Amino acid sequence: MIARRDLLLAAAGAVLARPAVAAAAEEDRDVLLRLLAREDAAALAYVRTAPEPLPGLAAQEADHAKALRTLLDAFGILAFPPPALDTPARKLVDAPEAQRLEAAIALEATLMEDYSAALLTLEPVGALQTAASILASHAQHRARLRSRAGLDPFG
Q1: pLDDT tens digit string along 117-153?
Q2: Count: domains in the chain
Q3: Residue 74 within any structural domain of the chain
């Protein structure tokens, strides 16, 4: 039979663990919100620099954003700020046409960095799987852009 003391200790442990779980969930939410802002910015940048350096990049970035919004729905977040250009996306939009490919490569590299960092902090399996899949997509974008620029795709 379980002693009353053991039950009290287990209950106290659960209460103490709850703030840590809540803090982890809040951190996951914040990471996903930052990634969403990056995806929205990238999609907006590719739309504003038409023609895209690779056909379909804007649509793929928008698909990434949709996947992140689905994850954020689990956190009860249903309203999102309007898309805005961040610094790497702004550099692409502002780049002269001759430098847009280089700016797109740089944008994809920063997205890869952000997703790589996110994989080290995200806890939910679904979030990890989604972030890893999106990271792979950005790696592919970067390789294809580098190839189009005449560079080693894996350099």
Answers
A1: 999 999 999 999 999 999 999 999 999 999 999 999 9
A2: 1
A3: yes
